[in-house]
Amino acid sequence: QAMQLGMIGLGKMGGNMARRLRRADIEVVGFDRGADVMQGLADDCGLVPADSLQALVGKLDAPRRVWLMLPAGEITESAIDELRDLLEPGDVLVDGANSFYKDSMRRAASLAESGIHFVDAGVSGGVWGLDNGYALMVGGSDDAFGGIQPIIEVLAPATDRGWIHTGPAGSGHFVKMIHNGIEYGMM
Question: What are the angstrom distances between the C-alpha of 30 and each of 39, 99, 100, 111, 168?
């Protein structure tokens, strides 16, 4: 059966990540508050639209992989709270926002109590990522990372470069914070 990913938040980054995954024949079930955004991606690349988080989870086979590309802070927090009740032990939840690493450590510990793997992924690449691939700084346990490594390898420029498993949960967003500091310093 084809590999699947649920993608929540289909803005510029999330939408292009969905397109890149579809090019590799990964089935993407997507949710965005903008129905027109979902329909556009459905027409463009064959994304499967879902009209709620519950519907998205229902369209994925276990163990599920769900990737959040929402703004950091309250929006991401409330999505994680809702998904905690929808996902099952063994599922993997990835936060691709620029969340504060201590929030990621807290979320990982909290989700672990429900048997849900949490991965924090710092994603860099902007509008060029669709064609060139994204740089990914990924934190999480070995089990959690193993569940999404094939997805990471498709999103990255190549299977063997452009991504790093930085260590336990929180470390991906920590490294992304350092990356941003260096990048903004250079600019």
Answer: 10, 21, 25, 22, 27
